[in-house]
Request: fold
Amino acid sequence: MRKPIIAGNWKMYKTHLEAKDLVKELKEKALPAGVEVVLCPPFTALATVGEELAGTEIGLGAQDLFWEEEGAYTGEVSPAMLRELGCAYVIIGHSERRQYFGETDESVNKKAKAALRHGLKPIICVGESLAQREAGETNQFVAGQMEKALAGLAPEEIPQVVIAYEPIWAIGTGRSSSGADANQVIGMIRQTIANQFQPALADQVRIQYGGSVKPNNIKEFMDQPEIDGALVGGASLKAADFYGIISYQ
Reply:
């Protein structure tokens, strides 16, 4: 049985003091049982949020990393640095990283391998554009992203990977996929993993939906058999909204 995982991606929001206040507010509420919750603040707030989360069941994640251990890579952050701050997860290959910063399937693969080497669980993002969806290319495109992202991973690493299916046209637009449509694509993603590795491993991989997830639509997604959680953007920036999502049962 896969334990649902709901992660808040704060993107480039919240100073470290604002982040501290948000976590304090969230901690005032009882954490629902049976759901793994992860917060992914900006790099500058990781230490602060990590300190606030100490002693709680909420996990800490980063929004990106670089694949080298260390070196002359100005502006980059290594997996070892994230581990030392207490991170358990790291988002890799978000569509905004691909769109604005030149992230490719190949760099996503290198980052995923680096994360796993350091005991970090990668949340690998995949998803199609509106044009690709309307052209009927969703399955082919997303399957290709998946195959390249997981290329060369050892079978025993696969259960440590989380996949986030985020159709690009639904991110931050207020427009979300239907539960049934998201379930179909996520089922295809699971089958792609099964074909690349084996069905028993694919059955262990948790696959999230992301894209304008809110308290009033989360249950539609979580009721689907293939969907194991959500990667939440804007709605994770307010404690009440995020709590409404993680307490969907």
Summary: The chain has a mean pLDDT of 96. The radius of gyration is 17 Å. The longest strand covers residues 121-126.
